[in-house]
Prior knowledge:
The complex is a heterodimer. By secondary structure, chain A is an alpha/beta fold. Chain A is built from eleven helices and twelve strands. In chain A, the strands form three sheets. In chain A, strands 5-6-7-3-8-9 form a six-stranded mixed β-sheet, with helices on both faces. Chain B is mostly helical. In chain B, helix 1 packs across helix 2 (43-63), helix 4 (77-99) runs antiparallel to helix 8 (178-199) and helix 5 (107-133) runs parallel beside helix 8 (178-199).
Amino acid sequence: MMMTVDIMDETAQKYVIKVDGLSKRFGGKQVLSNISFSVDEGSIFALIGPNGAGKTTTIRCITDSIESDGGRIELFGQSINPTVKRNIAVVSEDRRVFRHFTALDYEALWSALYPKWDSDVFKDFLARYNFDLKQRVETYSIGMKTLFFVALAVSSQAELLILDEPTQHLDPTTRFDIMTMLKAYAKDGRTILISSHEIFELEEYATDFAIIKQGKVIYTDSIDDAKEKHRIISEGDLMSRREGTVGIVGNEVLVKVDGTESSGRYPRLNEIVVGYLTGTKR
Amino acid sequence: MDRSSFGDFEYSVTAFNAYLRKQFVEKFRTLLVFFIIMLFPYVWAKMLGTFFIIVFSMGSDIRSKKLDMVTFLPFSKEMIYWYEFIFVSLFIVLSFFIGLPFYNGTLLEAFGDLLAAIIFAAAYYGLIVIVSMLGMDPIGGAFIILILDLVFSSFGSMQLGESFNPYKFISPIVQGNQLAALVFAVFCLYMGSVLFSKRGGEK
Lengths: 282, 203
């Protein structure tokens, strides 16, 4: 009996985030409807979807910034509490800042709250991108704010990073640096949840994803498995098929296949996303 | 109050220090003028200053949806609510002790005024959070509460009779009976905590 319990605990802890049946309504608008997905330890999980799909609301529910109307969220196998939160660093979408805070003030705040704070990582980051520690963060450009918050999140050494559009407003070189850094961060067994529109970039560094549309998860998988399970075929080839059509991607069609399918070509992540988001509508 | 909402004691202390530091850096310039008003050794000055500190601190944060910035950090909503109340109370206590040498009355009366100011702070803080969580604009709501409190406590008397007005006993401004006012303030503070824990920065 003890053995069974141990195995169950081990299985439960495999997920860093487990969202089950999450729903949320603002006023009369149903923003999230039965959202379910799970994020494995050590993965870089991307929440993908159009504007207003519910990605940021999902993140706000996960971080307990807002109360969900229904469903269950587990972080590290338990519901959220301050102890769990000390293992989670968040970069929000709006890049709001404390108005009078300098970079030094932020460092003091984050280093007090995050027990594994690594000041060397933070200093290296600031030196590399020429941040002025005594400058008010509010006066940074939007790109610099993004970079600064990513620096805080990475320096926290938290077990889970939740990053909303972490490469937005950054130049291509810096984007590449950030992607490399995040990959290295997750390689150490830590987990990253990313919300992003940058599907071409995500293919480079994410490992798993969920597509959210109108407050629902319409598909979730690892990127590798998703590619295995789908093909891009021409509309001509589609005529002979009756099942598995997912959606139209330009002049081609995304279809879901079983393991033995040989026709068509493997899709890229962006084609899977577009296929699911557009459905069969032209 | 759920203990798990605050983490272990050591972390609660660390988080409280961090929160206070954040508030002082972020708010002190805005709140300095109200703090100066509170230095006057009169209870009405403390109430007036406290009212504006609540409005421009928690009220303003809820209105401008700035609470997300704090809830994304390792603070629970319960922590934010109570730490903010302690932050407001600290202004009262600090101004009380600075103004104490200039107080015109006995020491007992001075501490009575301090208690009155804290009762006022508890009631108004709770009420402002309650109306905000019920969807009202926190700053507009604060002024409506103030006006209603002033109006309802202005008429009638506390003597049994035709003009008897029991509200005067619990009014946070008049505090006709300090114990009754304290009970009312604690109730408001608790209800504010319940609603804030449920809804946080979401108006």
